[in-house]
């Protein structure tokens, strides 16, 4: 489940609005409550910046975050949510929206217990205006977390959608939620349905399956023998793949999901990304 942040909050909200139902329209609606109610700060929200914020590539500008803590702006946000946002919600979807926000809050381990209790009390209460206002103010102030980035990307699963090759791990987190970084942690166990990032020396082998060329990836992590099949067509560069296949093995950074773990310690995985990170 994705981590609760400004992007996830706005995307879920836009799905339930009659007007302002595009993500950029929802963004402008909510942020206009800030920009129209202060003359202390300069703001610049180009379409590119909005897209980057919504995709987890850029942070909210610091001056916007500062403005959102102004008592007059907080008052304007609450009035705007009450007078514009809530009346624009599709009534049959309100309960589902609040349930979704509640699930995101419950699942987010980065939220302190005290804050989680406060937000859930608001979400489960009767005042939708107050709940949405406070949740918006909360996500505005979440520190921006940018992950390590790929220097080179060699393989990208068709299950992962992105516009370009920049900030892929941040964009991945927006779509799929947190992954467990095995390069930075001490946990040596792989669990089914969990997603991981790992840098490992892998063996590669090209095979022909049902009329398509596939590349089998294999590596051993702790006591698990991990294997995956990837479509040759999804490798970014066929020449790079040919070089890797000729070498027989290569050290990659991968993001993958564990599909199953067998009794003989063999582990089948689905790989989303293969590449090399910046040092």
Description:
The structure is a single chain. Helix 5 (71-88) crosses helix 8 (128-140) and helix 6 (94-107) runs antiparallel to helix 7. 40% of the residues lie in helices and 24% in strands. It has 279 residues and is of the alpha+beta class. It has a 5-stranded mixed beta barrel. A hairpin with a 2-residue loop joins strand 4 (212-221) and strand 5 (224-231). The protein contains 10 helices and 7 strands. The protein has 2 domains: 6-140, no CATH class; 150-277, OB fold (Dihydrolipoamide Acetyltransferase, E2P) (Beta Barrel), CATH 2.40.50. The model has no long low-confidence stretch (mean pLDDT 87). The chain is elongated and about 65 Å long.
SS field, number of helical segments:
10
Q: Could you tell me the number of beta strands?
A: 7
Largest sheet: 5 strands, mixed, barrel
For the termini, the CA-CA separation is 29 Å
Number of domains: 2
Helix and strand succession? HHHHHHHHEHEEEEHEE
Radius of gyration: 22 Å
Mean pLDDT: 87
Q: What's the helix and strand layout?
A:
Elements: H1 6-14, H2 23-35, H3 47-54, H4 62-67, H5 71-88, H6 94-107, H7 113-123, H8 128-140, E1 150-156, H9 168-176, E2 180-181, E3 195-209, E4 212-221, E5 224-231, H10 238-247, E6 249-261, E7 266-277
Parallel strand pairs: 2-3, 5-7
Antiparallel strand pairs: 1-7, 3-4, 3-6, 4-5, 6-7
Helix pairs in contact: 1-2, 2-5, 5-8, 6-7
Task: Give me some keywords for this one.
elongated; 279 residues; 10 helices; alpha+beta; five-stranded mixed β-barrel; 2 domains; 40% helix; OB fold (Dihydrolipoamide Acetyltransferase, E2P)
């Amino acid at each position: 489940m994705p981590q609760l942040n400004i992007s996830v909050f706005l995307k879920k909200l836009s799905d339930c609005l009659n007007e302002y139902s595009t993500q950029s329209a929802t963004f402008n609606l909510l942020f206009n409550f800030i920009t129209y109610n202060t003359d202390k700060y300069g703001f610049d929200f180009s379409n590119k910046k909005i897209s980057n914020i919504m995709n987890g590539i850029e942070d909210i500008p610091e001056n916007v975050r500062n403005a959102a803590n102004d008592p007059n702006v907080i008052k304007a946000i609450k009035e705007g949510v009450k007078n514009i946002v809530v009346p624009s919600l599709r009534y049959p979807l309100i309960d589902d929206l609040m349930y979704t926000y509640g699930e995101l809050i419950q699942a987010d381990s980065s939220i302190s217990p005290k804050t989680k209790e406060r937000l859930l009390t608001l979400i489960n209460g009767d005042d939708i205006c107050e709940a949405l206002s406070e949740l918006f103010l909360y996500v505005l102030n979440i520190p921006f977390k940018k992950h390590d980035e790929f220097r080179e990307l060699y393989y990208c699963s068709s299950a992962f959608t992105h516009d370009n090759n920049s900030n892929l791990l941040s964009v991945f987190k927006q779509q799929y939620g947190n992954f467990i970084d095995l390069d930075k942690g001490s946990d040596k166990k792989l669990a089914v349905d969990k997603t991981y990032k790992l840098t490992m020396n892998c063996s590669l082998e090209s095979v022909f399956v049902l009329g398509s060329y596939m590349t089998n990836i294999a590596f051993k992590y702790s006591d698990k023998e991990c294997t995956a099949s990837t479509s040759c067509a999804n490798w970014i560069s066929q020449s790079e793949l040919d070089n890797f296949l000729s070498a027989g093995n290569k050290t990659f950074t991968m993001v993958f999901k564990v599909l199953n773990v067998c009794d003989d310690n063999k582990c089948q995985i689905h790989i989303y990304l293969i590449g090399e990170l910046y040092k």
